[in-house]
Amino acid sequence: MASDLKEAGGLTRLFVTAALEPGATVILDEGQTHFLLHVLRGRAGDRVLLFNGRDGEWRAEVATTSKRGVALTLLSRCAPQTGVPDLWLIFAPVKKTPSDYLAQKATELGVSKLQPVFTRRTIVSRINDERLKANAVEAAEQSGRMTVPEIGAGMALDKLIAQWPQERPLYFCDEGGDVLPLAEAARGAVTDKAAILTGPEGGFDPVERAMLRAQPFVTPVGLGPRILRADTAALAAVTLWQSVKGDWR
User: Fold this and answer.
1) Count of Cβ atoms closer than 10 Å to residue 140 Cβ
2) Backbone phi, psi, residue 100, to 5°
3) pTM of the full structure
4) Is the dihedral of CA 176, 214, 113, 194 positive or negative?
5) Are strands 69-79 and 25-27 parallel, antiparallel or unpaired?
6) Cβ–Cβ < 8 Å for 107, 140
7) Using one digit for the tens of pLDDT, what is the confidence trace for 164-192?
8) Which residues are bridge partners to 65 per DSSP?
């Protein structure tokens, strides 16, 4: 008899890359197979939810199980595809707060793209893209989100700015100087797509600040009267933008 596989937050959701359509068979990868069989103790006849970021959310039933993988049969679509606001988070990785934490929380908050950037004061020299993606996938599964954010390859700040799509406003979280509150700047924007840039532990170098402020698509913004940790600033900025221009309105 069929039964639903449930976690603490409700029915288990899994992200897959395969197309989802009635009657189709989806084979889970090694990690998902281990999770379903050994963590959830799943078996043939159990049901889960699948999504791929394109075809909505589907109810699926475990058809067969083996060491090679679990085969799921698609039953019916239970929710249409939905997206998230077109907001990018550009962040300098920090040493004391792993980037996977930021990936999880930014995914839950509804960011569409995560872009690591290396500044002059960035201590972390490399990013594990696969780990970043895995944490984003897990957060999307658990939060009920229908998409997984795009993960950009880490690059130097000056290179990123040189190839920036100028129609996309970039809100530069600047700790000093004359700045607008982020909520006020977002409220006055004519477009609903944007990006937020936050820096490393030591903040931005003066040369970087001057370079950013010289760009026509950059708006320096503030996040309030207190100095925030880098990870706090990133999540606070996303929250402020979502409340004004995103899908929290």
Assistant:
1) 22
2) -70, -30
3) 0.93
4) positive
5) antiparallel
6) yes
7) 999 999 999 998 778 999 999 999 999 99
8) 70
The neighbour count for residue 226, using CB atoms within 10 Å, is: 6
- In a 3-state reduction of DSSP, which class is residue 11? strand
pLDDT digits (tens, 9 = 90+) for 60-111: 999 998 877 899 999 999 999 999 999 999 999 988 678 889 999 999 999 9
Structural domains in the chain, sorted by start: 3-79 (2.40.240.20), 87-245 (3.40.1280.10)
Element at 226 (helix H, strand E): none
Residue 140 carries which DSSP code? H
Closest to 133 in 3D by CA, of 154, 149, 116: 149
Helix, strand, coil % in the chain, rounded to nearest 5: 30, 30, 45
Query: How does 61-100 read in b/e, with b if 16+ C-beta sit within 10 Å?
Result: bbeebeeebbbbebeebeeeeeebbbbbbbbbbbeeebbb
Q: CA 6, 10, 15, 20 torsion: positive or negative?
A: positive
* Residue 196 CB neighbour total at 10 angstroms: 26
CA gap 44, 55 in Å, rounded = 24
Q: How many residues does the chain have?
A: 249
